[in-house]
Amino acid sequence: MRILRNAIMALALLATPVAADTPASPLEQALAVEQSRMALLNGDRLKGFLLFRNKRGAQPVERTTEWIDAQPFLEGDKQWACLAEALYFEARGESTAGQFAVAEVILNRAESRRFPNTVCKVINQGTGRKHRCQFSYTCDGLAETITDQRAYERMGKIAHIMLNGGPRDLTDGATFYHAKYVNPAWARQFTRTATVGQHHFYRRATRLSQN
Known about the structure:
Mean pLDDT: 77
Protein name: Cell wall hydrolase
Keywords: Hydrolase, Signal
Helix content: 25-40%
Strand content: 5-15%
Domain Cell wall hydrolase SleB: 93-202
Largest sheet: 3 strands, antiparallel
GO molecular function: hydrolase activity
InterPro entries: Cell_wall_hydrolase_SleB, SleB_dom1
Low-confidence stretches: 1-22, 36-49
Shape: globular
């Protein structure tokens, strides 16, 4: 119960608007806190009813295509553009949860001392060096051409959510993944943390997994 009370208190603090153009009313803030409380009480984590921060404060996230499609499309900075592009080329055919999971890996890498320290650098690590690309689309010799605008906008919305504090609870800190239909040798060196959609996710063995 103490953990639950602390979580509710933390969510209540998050619900305070940050730099809002139109500050949320006390009623809106109270509703956000109550939604968060009910999500915790109902064990709704698998549905993804969690919080991320935007200019109106803490907002719920639902990992469904319908919910994502209902959100406004907001362009962002260079890091947003890199993440949206990576999700488009790496995961647009995945389930919505699978797309969020791939975003988790990229952000986990950007926060790890073992990898470059920005989203763009993580995605482009090894690009131009044979067999060293970390994300295959960056060195497949094909132009990065967006042909499905609707899918790109969906990836852009997910990128926006994740870069603004979206929940990372799908992959248990994974920094590696591969498609289920392949069996790379490197995977045997790591701990599998999750399978989401068509991908297996991994991180280094526990004693080596610290950032």
